[in-house]
Amino acid sequence: MRGGGKVLERGYLIAVEGIDGAGKTVNSMWLVRRLRKSGYRAAYTKEPTEGPIGKVLRRSLARRGSNPEIDALLFAADRLHHIRTFIEPRLRQGFVVVTDRYLYSSIAYQGALTGDRRWVELVNRYCVHPDLAVYLDVDPSTGLERKKRRRSDARAFEDPEVLRRVRAVYLELCAEGKMVMIPADRELREVRAEIARVVGERLGIEIRTG
Ligand code: TMP
Q1: DSSP characters over 165-188
Q2: In angstroms, what is the span from residue 47 Cα to ligand 1's centroid?
Q3: Atom 18, ligand 1: which residue's CA is nearest?
Q4: Contact 29/173 with Cβ under 8 angstroms?
């Protein structure tokens, strides 16, 4: 596995979450670059994955009329494969693993779409809990506006009404203390300063924002 630098005794798992167009990918990649520059071994990863289950999942999402219960099971299976083959081996080696979407995407999206958040949590029972989960909050209209400029596999989830329900579940998770909310409807520079502050405060990892 690539990456030199400060070796932590145990790694950390950081999940970056939000609705489509919230800025998860640019900010997760930035965080990994900054962690490496600050001397940590860090890895970027994302869900759905490019693994065997992730591929089936993407094909299913690209078709209209995918079924929310089946999607929930596929996302959970893809996640467990991701944990066993990618995340856990790196955590054992002291990496800070930054995942662009994770467990909370399933709770928010499939929870909203099936109307059964508890069942979604149950099928994800063997999922490793992250050390920190950050929720980048934007209004669904901002997210959709940003997303319009890019190709997407997930047409089914681009309905503003669906995104409003998804956002409501994310906000519930923040209120329960499971995620840290960062307003992301503002300058990238400000969002990043806030991410660095939260990572420092919660994990004791100092990163230079530069
Ligand atoms: P992406 O656009 O971040 O690649 O994600 C593709 C879509 O998959 C996105 O609309 C959110 C959705 N998704 C879920 O519905 N549940 C999940 O557990 C994950 C990881 C993603």
Answers
A1: HHHHHHHHHHHTTSSEEEE-SS-H
A2: 7
A3: 106
A4: no
- Give the pair of three-digit tokens for residue 90: 């790196």
Whether 13 contacts 128, CB under 8 Å: yes
Say how many Å lie between the CA of residue 210 and the centre of ligand 1. Answer: 30
Locate the ligand 1 atom nearest the alpha carbon of residue 76 and give its number. Answer: 18
C-alpha 151/C-alpha 127 separation (Å) is 29
Cβ neighbours around 65 below 10 Å, total: 6
- Is residue 8's pLDDT more than 90? no
What would the pLDDT profile of 15-68 be if each residue is shown by its tens digit?
999 998 899 999 999 999 999 999 999 999 999 999 999 999 998 888 766 799
Ligand 1 centroid, distance to 164 Cα (angstroms): 15
Question: What DSSP string describes 36-103?
Answer: HHTTB-EEEEESS-SSHHHHHHHHHHHSTT--HHHHHHHHHHHHHHHIIIIIHHHHHTT-EEEEES-H
- CA dist 198 and 181 (Å) reads 10
Q: What is the pLDDT of residues 160-195, one digit of tens each?
A: 899 999 999 999 999 999 999 999 999 999 999 999
Q: Does residue 156 surpass a pLDDT of 60?
A: no
